[in-house]
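Quick illustration, no need to memorize.
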Amino acid sequence: METGIQEKGNLSIHTENIFPIIKKFLYSDHEIFLRELVSNAVDATQKLKKLTSYGEFDGELGELKVTVKLDKDAKTITISDNGIGMTADEIKKYINQIAFSGATEFVEKYKDKGDEGKIIGNFGLGFYSAYMVAANVEIITKSYKEGSEAVRWECDGSTEFTLTSAEKAERGSDIILHIAEDSEEFLDEHRLRGILEKYGKFLPVQIEFEDKIINNPNPIWTKNPSDLTDEDYIAFYKELYPFSEDPLFWIHLNVDYPFNLTGVLYFPKLKNDFQGQREKIQLYSRQVFITDEVKDIVPDFLQLLHGVIDSPDIPLNVSRSYLQADGNVKKINGYITRKVADKLSEIFKNDREGFEKKFDDIGLFVKYGIISDDKFYEKAKDFCLLKNVEGKFFTFNEYRDFVKENQTDKNETQVWLYTTDEKKQDAFIQSAKKRSYDVLSLTSVIDSHFINALEQKVEKTNVKRVDADTLDKLIEKDFKLDSILSKDDEEKAKKLFEDIAGTKSANVLVEPMPVDELPVVITFPEFMRRMTDMQASSGQRSMFGDMPLMYTVSLNANHPVIGRILQTEDEEGQKALAKQVYDLALLSQGLLTGSDLTLFIQRSVTTL
């Protein structure tokens, strides 16, 4: 039989260590104190407006605003509002009971009246962020309730406080922070202004600092799109990004089910520096700035967009400093992807000409989306455009029809030819045109990755760079040309050019080609070209390192220049002529530089 003490009771939480925890761990960045206290002041003001609309306050609202004052001499920062204020009992309830959220109780009480999403606070810990920077905090407050007495609360960060009567004529609250020695960096006007502009730039109540209103309480994402002009959207973009070019276009987000989300996303003119374009979307919760790291909410390919997203339904940690993953985040991510795809599709259908003019910029988003998001691809495949070297645009299906007859190989697979540099690869492009082959222009920083996605997603299609092989091998047909050279002459030509190439990296072949093709064609394997291009676009070192790239030297057995070289009896003259033709092939691939290029030019005066 068991014996001993048997007792039931309630656990008591001791709070002696709560302030060090708040100061060191709860808030990662000490400047957050100002965001929290100003947000609380905005809450108090918003609550009064609500009570007025519910008929529970019929006094004069007056000019509703929050004021932040700095007194360097007294080493204080004061945050004042003329909102609902507090009675002595409410201070005991909301301030002395740590983590009891007044906002939560208010929302619960009035949730049936709707619009509860306008109240900012959730956790009831915001006020205590003051102790990250303050050695002592005072509250002087007077409730909006008729006959209320003003009270003063003070606490030095210990578990003891004082609560006394105070003199205050108007309703509202003053939070007075006596700044600690280790936080005197915040006794700086420019520092405080910077924090206020960062976190409170779009708070829904006017914020006054140093006798100036520092915020825009009614940003465009809170307005009805039908009430806004193009000029309004561009002006707001300039407000967010003062030194940027005008955006291409924008998408106004507004959804209230199954989550609340508003915002405006802009398509900027992109540069090749993708990383520098990121972290330009700002996340807000009820107009309070949270972060510009939105990787969980916004799909990776759309992080190149600029703009604002505001949602009270995005889960935040207790300090509102970072996101917590849940189902809503995935839903919002999917919604944004769908909304962007629908907008692009709408523009394409309604104004294809305008869409084509902007596609060099738009295409970066679209191609990135196709590479990284299958759901986006399902919609984007109908408006993603391919541009050929003549500057003509095609959808995927249009291009399949366009090249079907001429660029289908013997295996019934279409071969799409492309160039990454029209000037450098011009000789190859011209050869393709002689066969009536079309050549796509894929020259952007993302195209090396996009090509892989094309082959995976477009059935029975191979995509090959126009200089990756001879044309007869790029697009293999059932018929083959005969060589006019004898087997002996082919071997002689092969040996001659192997000696000139002088490297184990070169593979010399003698092939019958049309007479009007080049006499010598130097090509690199498609996989090697593609891997090198992809790694260069990602800023990575080539996987091939410093190894010489394998390449093929194809001699056109049917070209008269090859015949002329073989017929040259003077051995030195034969080598000189072959060297000149070989260098010409190197030049067409951009491989002839420095002294070799100088010698080539000098020889050109007397050779050929």
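The chain has a mean pLDDT of 82.
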